[in-house]
Amino acid sequence: MTLAEIRSAHETTLAEAMQANADRTFYAHWPEAPSGKIYGETANDDGLAGFQKQLNHQFDRLPAESAWTGEEVSPYGFPLGITYPSIAVEDLIARGSAAQTAWQSLTPADRASILVEALERGAKDFFEIGYATQHTTGQGFVMAFQASGPHAYDRALEAVAMGLSAQQHFAMNVMWTKPMGKISVSIDKSFRVVPKGLNLVIGCSTFPIWNTTPGMFAGLVTGNAVIVKPHPGAIYPIAIVVARVRDVLTELGLDPNVIQLAVDTVDAPITLDLVRHPALRIIDYTGGPHFGAIVEREAAEHGKIVFTEKAGVNCVVLDSTDDLDRAMDNLAFSLTLYSGQMCTAPQNIFIARDGMKVGNDVVSVDAVVDKLREKIDALVFNEKAGPTTLGAVQNAATAKRVDEAHGLGFGVVRQSAPVLQPGFEAARSLSPIVLRTDTSKVDIYTKEWFGPISFVITTDSFEQSLDEVTSSIRKHGALSALVYCTDDARMQQAEDAIVHAGAPVSFNFNSYVWVNQSAAFSDFHGAGCNPAGNATFADWSFVTKRYNVVGVRKQA
Amino acid sequence: MTLAEIRSAHETTLAEAMQANADRTFYAHWPEAPSGKIYGETANDDGLAGFQKQLNHQFDRLPAESAWTGEEVSPYGFPLGITYPSIAVEDLIARGSAAQTAWQSLTPADRASILVEALERGAKDFFEIGYATQHTTGQGFVMAFQASGPHAYDRALEAVAMGLSAQQHFAMNVMWTKPMGKISVSIDKSFRVVPKGLNLVIGCSTFPIWNTTPGMFAGLVTGNAVIVKPHPGAIYPIAIVVARVRDVLTELGLDPNVIQLAVDTVDAPITLDLVRHPALRIIDYTGGPHFGAIVEREAAEHGKIVFTEKAGVNCVVLDSTDDLDRAMDNLAFSLTLYSGQMCTAPQNIFIARDGMKVGNDVVSVDAVVDKLREKIDALVFNEKAGPTTLGAVQNAATAKRVDEAHGLGFGVVRQSAPVLQPGFEAARSLSPIVLRTDTSKVDIYTKEWFGPISFVITTDSFEQSLDEVTSSIRKHGALSALVYCTDDARMQQAEDAIVHAGAPVSFNFNSYVWVNQSAAFSDFHGAGCNPAGNATFADWSFVTKRYNVVGVRKQA
User: Fold this and answer.
1) pLDDT tens-digit profile of A420-458?
2) B555 CA: distance to closest CA in chain A (Å)
3) CB–CB contact A176 B527 (8 Å)
């Protein structure tokens, strides 16, 4: 396999992906169905066998080191027993720095082609990745397959394509000839992409691939050497991705340390040592807001580039609908999916005390709330769909938070209860709790209640609901907002207010798209302009802040 | 004049400018010659008359305020006596915030067209701008005309075009249809540009328009309301530009406070009050490194976007040349032009103690240095070209610095002396001082010696010269670097080293292009990756960091 072969193999893919980024219509390079017809009849069995073989073994797809580390435990109730080669911070930095020089001297198109080759090969891992993700994050298998496989790989391709578009926009070599009356003067100019420096990508425990590939591939395509530092509770999925990229680099005779995996434990974390290292110039962070704020502060103090996707408090406004059943079906699914452990899941549902207009009728708050409970119950108690939609709870702290919510003494719309995950008796799985309150409790419900916890909050009016939402976005951030409203003027009012506050907004979702979802090549994930984070997958800034263009001029 | 007329009038200009940004070949929308044939036979007389009429009067092209402020003094030796309407910080913020809402709701193409209309009308002011710039900065008239007129307006157009390219890259409205087996689901999506917030542009005293228009127009085209805060010593030139943009906005029925002029005095500065105001989200700064570092720190602490172009220490390496006369002619001009008061002017000239290879001969350091002095003398003592090339010294501190340099006790290659500016007996004008030392004085010559001060530094070798340069770039920053070298291997070595260190590099300039120059639409000004500043006129980041794209999704 030569670089020329790789270039020509992926030229069309890259051209399509660049076009898709511009068009924002539906585009997916990897099909999302975990189907044998697409990925091969034995793909599921092979992936499961690979997963089972990996359990209780060293992860030897990465080169051996003198120390091995690993402490992952499945939220479905068993330790994974996998250890990973552990590299000291100074060694990670030295190896990354050494590898970067050759990597940055490749053309952007070559870097992009190599990365697509790695992604294409990685698609063969989707089923193992699905099981690895299920048993680190707690996601149900189908969601784990989709989120960490095709959807995450599409986000990676999106970032590669954006990075390539940006770098290719300017001519790389030109003869500049200035007419000066009877004479002219010529200068031979070239423009070189200079990466900012080592790029650290800090992962989270709930979306170990989807939240990591955008920064990882954006850093790589723009010439930076990247160090991926996953959450100690969810290393396995991204380790597979890192190993695949390294394999391709090695085959091409390039230094594989362009991409490295940095592992640590909860008790001996190394993230801040990496963040603070002077050679480290770019930081991608997805995860909780507390540690995110520390990372942002460290980066700001030392002039580093930082991309964050922390968390916010996502709001819903219930004003009016043509079909309450479909609306509540949709909302119930959003509250239930992966037990509310998505950064885009709704938390606070505002409704005017007069209730909701449904067609020409007015439905009382009590009746709307009953309908919501009924729809959640129908999903949770569905023997087939319930457990797999909910999945398991990644972190014990999230389960404790459900108890804490119950202890608030608010009205209970729906009580949480343990859910049996067939085949995994010890799984930590809980159904959603929905509480009811009013705006007097604003200090409580505007905290982030991460997990299967939501609040229905009655307000005086649609206007007050909207004010609550925009004020919450500005103060606490948000990654999504959902409005049910059939009145054109109110829709426009809500759109303007929420967009100006800095959050993306969805209206009247009532079928097979949910507010939690964010589609690669179309939806910008993380608006970047509210306290929930400063980054967007994948807009111009997400790639262009990672490098500079430096000019070389020669007298011609 | 309607918006539709403006759109169609400037469509071609914008398309050409966007293409020029991508091509990087020679492009100029406004001719640089201060010629009556181009700008009208009476243009010079009209401009001079306008200038003279403005002296000792209120600047009434901006709306009256209760207070008027102004203390500008021409470096050619007389007070301008102009006062400007003075607006309190809170009023600037309130007016800008109120104006921004309508401005951001225009399409990017409409904003760009309006800005081009303002620039085209402003071109009628070039001669007055030339005199205004001459008598605030000290530049000779021709340079003042070019730098503040056509060159600055081209930089403005470049920024507008980059901003438009970036915003137009993504579709603004699409129907997203996802196939799901036998059914499909459609979502109507739109993507809205949300400006980060008020944009402050802090100007400097030496390039009051050229250094201000890029940030000003980048902020405006991306939907931000902009407050321009010029240096109290150089308000007049940019006031003309601001007034023209306001006129166009007013004619179109838009709130002119989208662009405001904030004036202050040296004794009662308001810049930090603006920088610290929470509504102020973007800051453009060009000027000295000390205050620039304060601005950067304030911005970092409060999560604001900041673009800086401070100053660095620009280096030259003399290794080899085919034609010493032409090389030294070129270098002498770069050292003399505007008395070294350009952020791109060379300061430290490194030469190996064995001398310089010229063709097949070796010329000693003494002889090279003699040649350089001879070339500076020829230019300075040229009765016609000397005074206008040198211009006057903007700040008394710069003249004092020349004395300080003399007092270092270094070898004197060329002594500075007062220069008579015909017609302006009281002008503060000085010829260049060139000193000679070696690398033992590194702590002295790596300071920024702003003004007509340079050092010839002997080293052990070409390699040591290059090490000195790259170390200086990394520690002290640079906006330019110049190398004379005819050996291919050494050229490549120098290119790689200097580019990796983060500075643009020029080789073997020997005709009518000088290292100080930075051409709009071709040269990226300010690499953005060394301590001299973080911004580049005008790369992607220079525009894309000023706004976010926020999505709106509606069930279709």
Assistant:
1) 999 999 999 999 999 999 999 999 999 999 999 999 999
2) 5
3) no
B49 preceded by a cis bond (ω within 30 of 0): no
How do residues B130-177 score in pLDDT, each as one tens digit?
999 999 999 999 999 999 999 999 999 999 999 999 999 999 999 999
Chain B residue numbers touching A331 (CB-CB < 8 A): none
Rounded to a whole number, what is the distance in Å from the CA of A225 to chain B's nearest CA?
15
Contact of A203 with A231, CB cutoff 8 Å: yes
**Mean model confidence pLDDT for chain B:** 97
Summarize pLDDT for B356-405 with one digit per residue, the tens. Answer: 999 999 999 999 999 999 999 999 999 999 999 999 999 999 999 999 99
Nearest CA in chain B to A483: B554
- Alpha carbon B512 to chain centroid, angstroms: 20
- Residue A517 and residue B545 in contact, taking contact as beta carbons nearer than 8 Å: no
Query: Is there a contact between B349 and B458 (Cβ–Cβ < 8 Å)?
Result: no
The average pLDDT across A258-271 equals 97
Measured CA to CA, the distance from residue B255 to residue B237 in angstroms comes to: 22
CB neighbour list of residue A13: distance below 8 Å, 6 or more residues apart:
A29, A116, A120, A157
Residue A427 burial class via C-beta count within 10 angstroms: exposed 0-12, middle 13-18, buried 19 and up: buried
Where are chain B's structural domains? 3-310+535-555, 315-507
| Residue in chain A lying closest to B503 (CA) | A550
How close does chain B come to A418, measured CA to CA in Å? 32
pLDDT band at B1, cuts 50/70/90?
A: confident
* Per-residue pLDDT, A1: 85
DSSP code for A503: -
Cα–Cα distance measured from residue A57 to residue A54, given in angstroms and rounded to the nearest whole number: 5
For the beta sheet containing B198-202, the strands, ordered from the edge strand earlier in sequence to the opposite edge, are B259-261, B226-229, B198-202, B280-286, B305-309
Are the beta carbons of B493 and B501 closer than 8 angstroms? no
The answer to whether the Cβ–Cβ distance between B26 and A178 falls below 8 Å is yes
Helix (H) or strand (E) holding A505: strand A505-507
Q: Is the alpha carbon torsion for B335, B338, B341, B344 positive or negative?
A: negative
pLDDT category, A171, cuts 50, 70, 90?
very high
ipTM over 0.95 threshold: yes
Which residues in chain A are contacts of B539 at CB distance < 8 A? Answer: 544, 548-549
End-to-end CA distance of chain A: 39
CATH architecture of B3-310+535-555: 3-Layer(aba) Sandwich (3.40)
Peptide bond into A489 cis (omega under 30): no
Given a cut of 90, whether residue B181 has pLDDT beyond it is: no
**Cα–Cα distance, A348 to B93 (Å, whole number):** 33
> Is the Cβ pair A523, B551 closer than 8 Å?
yes
Q: Does residue A527 have a pLDDT over 90?
A: no
Give A294's contacts (C-beta < 8 A, 6+ positions apart). Answer: A272
pTM of the model: 0.96
Close Cβ partners of B118 (under 8 Å, ≥ 6 residues apart): B244, B245, B247, B248, B249
Sequence letter at residue B467: D
Banded model confidence at residue A69, pLDDT cuts 50, 70, 90: very high
Q: Which CATH number is associated with domain B315-507?
A: 3.40.309.10
Mean pLDDT of B237-259: 98
Q: How much is the average pLDDT of A384-406?
A: 96
Characterize B462-493 residue by residue with b for buried, 16 or more Cβ atoms within 10 angstroms of its Cβ, and e for exposed. Answer: bebbbbbbbebbeebbbbbbbbbbeeeebbeb
What's the CATH fold of domain A11-311+535-555?
Aldehyde Dehydrogenase; Chain A, domain 1 (3.40.605)
Domains B3-310+535-555 and B315-507 share a fold: no
Q: pLDDT for B54-74, tens place per residue? A: 999 999 999 999 999 999 999
